[in-house]
Design a protein that fits this description.
mainly alpha
Length: 106
């Protein structure tokens, strides 16, 4: 018997959605079953990378909440994210850290 054992992969992104996005391009024909799995893994690694870089910027600004302005600064400061520059152009810039108004003074 000639068969391929299909291993069930746990992906963090929905395979059907990835396949639908890929097929929305008229130039894309059939898609091999492993392709959406690979795309999902690439998305996961990309998200991990951009979030880690943005987290570092957030910490440098002494902020506890990651914001779109931190993400914008990350994209502008990192060459490999340059392709996202147009998308974040309208996001607010990072404000300088200010004294927290919460809680009592120490």
């Amino acid at each position: 018997q000639n068969f391929v054992a299909m291993k069930k992969y746990r992906t963090r992104f929905p395979m059907a959605r990835i396949k639908k996005i890929m097929q929305s391009d008229e130039e894309v024909g059939k898609i091999a079953s492993g392709t959406p799995i690979l795309i999902s893994k690439c998305l996961e690694l990309f998200m991990k990378d951009i979030i880690e870089n943005t987290t570092q910027i957030t910490a440098e600004k002494n902020s506890q909440t990651m914001s779109s302005s931190h993400l914008k600064q990350c994209i502008k400061a990192t060459d490999r994210f340059d392709f996202l520059s147009d998308i974040v152009e309208r996001a607010p810039d990072v404000e300088p850290p200010t004294e927290s108004k919460r809680g009592r003074p120490r």
